Amino acid sequence: MHSLLHSPSPSTYATELHRQMIQRKYGMFIHFGLNTFHDQEWTDGTLDASSYHPKGLDTDDWARTASEAGMRYVILTTKHHDGFCLWDSPHTEYSIAASPMKKDVVAAMAESCRKFGLDLGLYYSLWDRHWGNGVMRRHSFEMDAALSNEQKQAYALYMDAQIHELMSSYGPICELWLDGGWNMPREAWEIPRIYDTVRSLQANCAVGVNWSIGHPDQIDIHALHPDQQQEGYPIRYFPSDFRLGDPELPGEKDPKCFSHEGELYYMPFESTVCLNQHWFYHTGDTELKRVEDLAALYRQATAQDNILILNSPPNREGRMTEANKRRLRELAAHLGLC
């Protein structure tokens, strides 16, 4: 078991880290990767990396769109459940390095964020269905029993190495958004190790894990929806700085304090909602949420000192669609964010 070196302090009110999140308030989630080129949301790590080929990749276009939408930060998917990395990680062959377009998207996004005055956050999937010749391809808790102790240890070191790369190579990172933890018991992911790595390299980076809160009778329940959460319920993935549960919105009376080993910790909720009908770009997905509906989502998600990231996926060229740009500007005008 990892010995925790960095840990949030017990608190029943927002800390400085939380106040920074609450002040950001509104950002863009960007799902982009191998799935973009296959009209799929989740893939199993067997798609050919050579099919990733955005010929017009333009992260300035992404950042400009977010800025014009009145957003203050972006969260970029660096690696989804399929394991394909948007940077050239030396710890896997399944990355941009094996594709025709070898540009480091994380580096490009970081530079674009600096150019347009945005903060940068990163999404990283704990679950990697490509790793170890697909030993983690299963979609259930059965996967944990199928892995040897040696494999679990090797995988923990693999995650730690990749997160170290992401936290040390691209300048300030405001947030790390972890996903896929529900596919094995929480202990298997060694969240304390990850938290220590992040905080040792990025002292102001908030860490969150999707489906963050458990039930007092079953801490690994999946999933305890935000409107079912109550003050003092256990933190499923400790340490975490904020709560996630996509694509849910907080309830009308959102609790903020959750427990670990008898102490309470303040955890705001970050909502993640799709502008389109999918997380990743799909060629047939032309239906956007209406401005009025998005405005209502925005108000509910950002009330009670909570936060919203609205997902807008780049297309296969590597640009935001004109329809998405237009809808985001309309929403900004409607909300007075221009």
Protein traits:
single chain; 338 residues; alpha/beta; TIM Barrel; 8-stranded parallel sheet; two-stranded antiparallel ribbon; 10 strands; 29% helix; globular
Describe the structure.
- This protein has 338 residues and is of the alpha/beta class.
- Helices cover 29% and strands 15% of the residues.
- The strands form two sheets. The chain has an eight-stranded parallel beta sheet with strand order 6-5-4-3-2-1-10-9.
- Helix 6 runs parallel beside helix 7.
- It is globular and about 50 Å long.
- The mean pLDDT is 96.
Short description:
The protein is α/β, with parallel strands linked by helices and 338 residues long. The protein has helices at residues 16-24, 59-68, 105-116, 131-134, 142-146, 149-168, 191-201, 291-302, 322-335, and strands spanning 26-30, 73-79, 119-125, 175-179, 206-210, 242-244, 257-260, 263-266, 270-274, 307-311.
Q: Major sheet, described briefly?
A: 8 strands, parallel
Task: Identify low-pLDDT runs.
Answer: none
Which percent bin holds the helix content? Answer: 25-40%
Kindly provide the radius of gyration, computed on alpha-carbon positions and rounded to a whole number of angstroms. 19 Å
CATH superfamily: Glycosidases
CATH domain class name: Alpha Beta
CATH fold-level topology: TIM Barrel
Number of strands: 10
Strand order within the widest beta sheet: 6-5-4-3-2-1-10-9
Backbone structural class: alpha/beta
- Beta-strand percent range: 5-15%
Kindly give the count of domains: 1
What is the typical, i.e. mean, pLDDT?
96
